[in-house]
Design brief:
The chain is an all-alpha fold. The protein has one domain (about 30-135). It is built from four helices and no strands.
Length: about 140
């Protein structure tokens, strides 16, 4: 059963990777108008560079950190959700083995806390980047 779940997990990860590659390839063909974009999009580098206008090293470093934070978010959040789903399957298939069910509960708890930490860390990085860009502009 564990081999089947691992194979399904690998297939899901591969499908997500292929989907991401295809969608990023076709994303250049269509862009969302500026008025409909969210204010906190991870890769809004053009807007940030236009605001900064200096192009100094500090601004370049901040923009790099923004790219890194957005990229990690796009990788870590789906991975956490996949782990939550796989833990749910493990929990459902454990049957009456209380020790394994308790282990799955702990794993599920830590997975959900990890997902919350990912979301909060992205928000914190955005706040720090915004403050640093404002300081660099002054």
């Amino acid at each position: 059963m564990k081999k089947i779940i691992k194979k399904i997990g690998i297939m899901i990860i591969l499908a997500l990777a292929i989907n991401f590659a295809i969608s990023s390839f076709f994303a250049s063909a269509y862009t969302i108008p500026e008025q409909f974009r969210p204010l906190n999009e991870p890769f809004s580098i053009g807007k940030e560079l236009n605001k900064a206008q200096g192009g100094n090293t500090t601004t370049g470093t901040i923009i790099f950190l923004q790219i890194l934070a957005g990229g990690l978010l796009y990788f870590a959040a789906p991975l956490a959700i996949i782990i939550i789903v796989m833990t749910g399957f493990n929990m459902a298939f454990q049957g009456a083995e209380t020790e394994k069910i308790e282990e799955s509960k702990r794993s599920l708890t830590w997975s959900v806390l990890g997902l919350l930490l990912i979301i909060l860390s992205y928000s914190l990085v955005r706040i720090i980047i915004k403050a640093a860009l404002q300081a660099a502009a002054n």
